[in-house]
Design goal:
The structure is a single chain. This protein is mostly helical. The chain has 2 domains: about 20-210 and about 220-230 and about 260-395, no CATH class; about 435-570, STAS domain (Transcription Regulator spoIIAA, 2-Layer Sandwich), CATH 3.30.750. The chain is about 60% helix and about 5% strand. It contains 24 helices and 8 strands. The strands form 2 sheets. Strands 4-3-5-6-7-8 form a 6-stranded mixed beta sheet. It has a two-stranded antiparallel sheet with strand order 1-2. The longest helix has about 35 residues, at about 260-290. The radius of gyration is 31 Å and the shape is elongated.
């Protein structure tokens, strides 16, 4: 029997790049990966549990949703040190989708979260396999900034009851704010929880700011948990703590849900996959550039999809790449995916033998962890900058923020996407256009509104249209052409459509050109084009349009169109370089 040569298996580099790296693992990488994996574990545990509770699930499921993705990505992920796991930006989306369907049942919420993870994983794999990454472009920067700010506010307000020691079942932001104000006014709360939560949040932020190389989160977790255990605050001060956690690794469990619930979860799964693609593609490219290697964005989404499907089968919830934990692994000296495997193994050992160490961990501490994460990705300055630079973009961002925060996560995203599509349609419907003139001492022909000193060739109108011509804007094109002719300083003999930016002309717009040609001919005006692309001209030929408006009415450039006009029409006009 011949010996199996792994180097000759061509499928591995394409479908299991992580496994290929592991098969060629170097001994020099082991110690850095071990140390980075242990450093990463100190963050993965409290963050995973905090994000689970923020998603409306028991904390233990945050650890389940951490172990599985790390293992799957180590095999199928193309990036060597990218960290996958629960993500703060997804918590509000998950909670908004599963909690109404769960109707107060924790067990049902776990099942629904598992199915949501599987559906989002399937969507991610579809994006990767079909190369549909351009769908993420629908989540433009203004929409994302507004969405993330609303998520940050929603999650932050949702975690404040833990900091204050107040129980809350309110789900949407207005109800949460009302409940908080009412509870504070009634004097409810737990001063010990407030002290631990606020002190933990302050320490996390200060250490991240002034001592970024220190394991700040680990130190705060150890300190708060130690104080809670030492003084038995769960009994003496009625402090809410994690309590006894299930021991052992997660069992395989297919999330059984109805078709109705699948239909309710699917739109959110699409949104989660688009958010995951956007975050993962940016982060993985940055890591690859710093590491001197290349990654396939399609393979990234396949790996993220497989990780989500797998975690959904093991009682986890939807995950994504982490822009906060990945830098920790990188700074700790991680070399390969073994860092993630070490982290997964450490958490697995904790689940098997060390869950009692987490019993005294205060819920207020987990609330502080989640709030710190929200503050890290909130971008109020970005919205202020948009307001200064482009009011329409700011309006989109504000709509996204208000919709997600006040109406609901899914409803807000749908409303904002619909508004973005309307703005896109409006821009295509009403594109920019200009009448061009010659500016002395400057090459080319320029917009007369920006250069009122420009000189125009008598009898010639140069009309530039900066978009494709199609059924929605053909009428506007025709109206503006007639307006340009009517406002010309001299009687018009020839209209030249400057068509460099016209990338397509559909049948409806072609019919409009025939009508325009007929109207202009009756007025004694010739219709010409300058710079029209070959493929667009071919379309007009196929439509039969050129048989009606002429085949010899095209000039390669505006300058050439002007020269052709001057040779056929006797006009009293000299160019600035002829004077």
């Amino acid at each position: 029997m011949t010996r199996l040569d792994w180097k000759n298996i061509r499928l591995l580099p394409g479908w299991a790049p992580g496994l290929t790296t592991l098969l060629h693992y170097q001994k020099a990488w082991l110690l850095p990966d071990l140390m980075a994996g242990l450093a990463l574990t100190a963050i993965l545990v409290p963050v995973g549990m905090g994000y689970a509770e923020a998603s409306g699930l028991p904390a233990i499921h945050g650890l389940y949703a951490t172990i599985i993705p790390l293992i799957v990505y180590a095999i199928f992920g193309p990036s060597r040190i990218l960290v996958l796991g629960p993500d703060s930006t997804l918590t509000a989306v998950i909670a908004a989708l599963i909690l109404p369907l769960a109707a107060g049942s924790v067990e049902r919420a776990v099942v629904l979260a598992g199915m949501l993870a599987m559906l989002s994983g399937m969507c991610s794999m579809l994006i990767g396999l079909a190369r549909l990454g351009m769908l993420a472009d629908l989540l433009s920067k203004p929409i994302r900034i507004g969405f993330l700010n609303a998520i940050a506010l929603t999650v932050l307000v949702g975690q404040l009851p833990k900091i204050l020691g107040i129980g809350s079942k309110a789900r949407d932001l207005p109800d949460q704010v009302h409940h908080l104000l009412q509870s504070v006014a009634n004097g409810q709360g737990n001063w010990v929880a407030l002290l631990i939560g606020s002190a933990s949040l302050t320490l996390i932020l200060l250490l991240a700011r002034w001592r970024p190389r220190w394991p700040g989160l680990l130190l705060v977790v150890l300190l708060a948990t130690g104080v809670s255990a030492w003084f038995d605050l769960a009994n003496t001060a009625h402090l809410t703590v994690l309590g006894r956690l299930p021991q052992g690794l997660p069992d395989w469990q297919f999330p059984a849900v109805s078709w109705y619930e699948v239909r309710q979860l699917l739109p959110g799964a699409v949104i989660i996959s688009l958010l995951s693609f956007t975050d993962t593609s940016v982060l993985s490219r940055a890591l690859a550039q710093r590491g001197g290697y290349r990654v396939s964005q399609s393979q990234e989404m396949v790996a993220v999809g497989l990780a989500n499907i797998s975690t959904g089968l093991f009682q986890g919830f939807a995950i994504s790449s982490s822009a906060s934990r990945t830098p920790v692994a990188e700074a700790a000296g991680a070399k390969t995916q073994v860092t993630g495997l070490v982290g997964a193994l450490a958490i697995a050992l904790l689940l098997v033998w060390g869950t009692e160490w987490l019993q005294s961990l205060p819920s207020a501490l987990l609330g502080a962890v989640v709030i710190a994460a929200c503050l890290s990705f909130a971008d109020v300055a970005g919205m202020r900058e948009m307001f200064r630079q482009r009011k329409m973009e700011f309006a989109l961002s504000l709509t996204s923020f208000v919709g997600v925060a006040l109406i609901g996560v899914m409803e807000g995203i749908v409303i904002t996407l619909a508004l973005a599509m309307l703005v896109l349609l409006w821009n295509a419907w009403h594109p920019y256009f200009a009448v061009l003139a010659r500016v002395d001492g400057t090459k080319g022909y320029h917009d007369i509104t920006r250069h009122p000193e420009g000189r125009r060739v008598p009898g010639l109108v140069l009309f530039r249209w900066d978009a494709q011509l199609f059924f929605a804007n053909g009428e506007i094109f025709q109206e503006q052409v007639h307006h340009a002719i009517a406002s010309a300083p001299t009687p018009t003999l020839r209209l030249v459509v400057v068509a460099d930016a016209i990338t397509d002309i559909d049948i409806t717009a072609a019919d409009m050109l025939v009508n325009l040609h007929h109207d202009l001919t009756q007025q004694g005006i010739e219709l010409w084009f300058a710079g029209l692309k070959g493929q667009v001209k071919d379309s007009l030929k196929d439509y039969g349009t050129l048989d009606l408006i002429g085949h010899d009415i095209f000039a390669p450039t505006v300058g050439n169109a002007v020269n052709l006009y001057r040779t056929t029409h006797s006009v009293d006009w000299k160019d600035w370089d002829e004077i």
